[in-house]
Amino acid sequence: xxxxxxxxxxxxxxxxxxxxxxxxxxxxxxxxxxxxxxxxxxxxxxxxxxxxxxxxxxxxxxxxxxxxxxxxxxxxxxxxxxxxxxxxxxxxxxxxxxxxxxxxxxxxxxxxxxxxxxxxxxxxxxxxxxxxxxxxxxxxxxxxxxxxxxxxxxxxxxxxxxxxxxxxxxxxxxxxxxxxxxxxxxxxxxxxxxxxxxxxxxxxxxxxxxxxxxxxxxxxxxxxxxxxxxxxxxxxxxxxxxxx
Length: 244
Description:
alpha+beta, single chain, 10 strands
């Protein structure tokens, strides 16, 4: 994927998320509450919660919403038990896809995920069928801005524990180990660095280009996953920079 196309796609995805911000916040609140229930409500003592909070802040989720979700999880969480599951499969044209869900009804969610694959020319696979093509890493995107000094940004990121920072015409991509993601995000927030997106992502080692027809199917499949309240994240290796 070309650098410019990657930034354009991230902005496009963020624009879609902003249009349905309430749904995004609801999904993140569930993620935070589950992390708090599993490991306690103190982000300093609960790495999973710290990561969830950092991701929520990158999406501009209000602190009040975050605090409510933590308190909900540290309490009863409405007595609902959520299970975290990763589904793997192939999208149209053989694109590798990982779907991460939090669900209180495994059978319902499995059916919904399978339907999204089948309806759009893909198929649900077995665990491990595509995950070997991805590496888990923290990824933070910062758009270029006149107020941001590149050298200062790099210093802040590296001193906080980032592994690398790549510069392009559109902005800066900061890469971290998963366990350092939240710390780097905190450092950027403390220095008032505006973040376009921040997440612990599954980064593909290879990418697959699609023809126009399969690209349309892939977009529809991703939209179906976005509309599903159980789906937290979708990772894929579709090269969106151009057609096959």
